[in-house]
Amino acid sequence: MKEKTYERENAILSPYAMRSQESRGRLREEPPCSMRTDFQRDRDRIIYSKAFLRLKNKTQVFFAPDGDHYMSRLTHTLDVSQIARSIARELSLNEDLAEAIALGHDLGHTPFGHVGERVLCRLAPCGFRHSEQSLRVVDKLEKDGRGLNLTFEVRDGILNHGKNGTPHTLEGAAVSLADRIAYINHDIEDAVRAGYLREEELPKEAIDLFGRDTSERINTAILDICTESEGKPYVRMSKERGRALEALRAFMFEHVYERANKVIQESAERMLGELYGYFTARPEELPAVYRGLMEEDGIDRVVCDYLSSMTDRYAIGVFKQLYVPREGGL
Fold first, then answer.
1. How far is CA 287 from CA 16, 121, 290, 305, 306, in A?
2. 20 to 30 A from 89, CA-CA: which of 126, 138, 174, 286?
3. 37, 6 in Cβ contact below 8 A?
4. What is the DSSP string of 305-322?
5. Does residue 315 contact residue 267 with C-beta atoms inside 8 Å?
6. In this structure, which long-range contacts are made by residues 127-132, counting pairs with CB atoms below 8 Å and at least 24 apart in sequence?
7. More confident site: 89 or 264
């Protein structure tokens, strides 16, 4: 089965695509799978990881929203995967590689969305970026400290998925664009649903270029990328729509993200700040997998590992257990 995949890739993929047989390999050598390519194995390892399962209970933008249809970190990840696969398919890139990168790109994200990321970055002398943490998750934290042992190309795409990242593959570049397309458009949906803005407030020039609803805007963005990048050694949006997407992103930061963040900023700062102080002072109370990393990586890094792994409700639960008096004083 794997050989047939290799044959299909050689027959249909762009000369600029990453072929499975050409991977630079894993951190540690291991026996190959008889059925799946290395990129297919990476995708499966990510899907079955504990970090991936926890994404369903991590905030995207709106914390504990009153409704069932708001984005979580998991639904965002699935959106990115779908968009990245669509781009890869149209440009004859390696769809399996794009999917694996997309599914793993936010594994290291904190509870409470980007507020949690900023809090840990401020508290920890070692700093904190969720893209770097996502790589640390797949390299070191999963499988009780053994990591997932992913390929270079997937690891590189995860690390470099941010706006200023420089991935080594076109599949990684597709995921980076897909991430921005996904979060901007679905965050607009959530913001309208939550009453943070009205659709008529969106920048007119950007909406005229992309469309009035989420589906139209995403389709327009994908088509623009594919038209601009077809047969080229790059994946990018046209200059006109690239500027319009950036205008939408800037608008969302000014009118939605900052307002939404203020709602949870104080609570998230207090909870994560107290938990950070508690576990740096009492490292013996960390779970065993994290205690085992302290000698090599230091207490600050390891406490960040533990706190960033938490879901929203788990972080709240630990905080309550440590700091909120129980009824009857017990």
1. 44, 22, 6, 11, 8
2. 138
3. yes
4. HHHHH--HHHHHHHHHHH
5. no
6. 128/304, 128/308, 130/106, 130/308, 131/105, 131/158, 131/159, 131/160, 131/161, 131/162, 131/165, 132/108, 132/159
7. 89
Strand, helix or coil for residue 105: coil
295 vs 84, 189, 292, 299, CA distance in Å?
39, 45, 7, 8
Alpha carbon separation from 47 to 55, 100, 107, 126 (Å, rounded)? 11, 9, 10, 29
Give the number of residues written for the chain.
330
Q: Which two tokens stand for residue 99?
A: 């999917």
271 within 8 A of 314, measured Cβ to Cβ: no
Give the C-alpha separation, 195 to 264, whole Å. Answer: 16
In single-letter form, the type of residue at position 53 comes to L
Predicted confidence (pLDDT) per residue in 155-208, tens digit: 999 999 988 889 999 999 999 999 999 999 988 888 888 778 888 899 999 999
Any residues with CB less than 8 A from the CB of 7 and at least 6 apart, and which?
Answer: none
- Residue (of 76, 233, 232, 238) closest to 161 by Cα position: 76
Backbone φ and ψ for 151, nearest 5 degrees, come out as -70, 160
Angle formed by the axes of helices 170-194 and 152-159, to 10°? 40
For the whole model, what pTM was predicted?
0.94
Indicate the domain borders of the chain: 2-13+29-265
Neighbours of 31 (CB within 10 A): 5
**83/148 Cα distance (integer angstroms):** 24
Say if residues 82 and 108 touch (Cβ distance below 8 Å): no
Cβ neighbours around 227 below 10 Å, total: 12
Residue found by looking up tokens 């090599």 in the block: 296
- Is residue 252 within 8 A of residue 188, CB to CB? The reply is yes
Look at residue 67 and give its three-state secondary structure.
coil
CATH code linked to domain 2-13+29-265: 1.10.3210.10
Cross-strand bridge partners of residue 151: 26
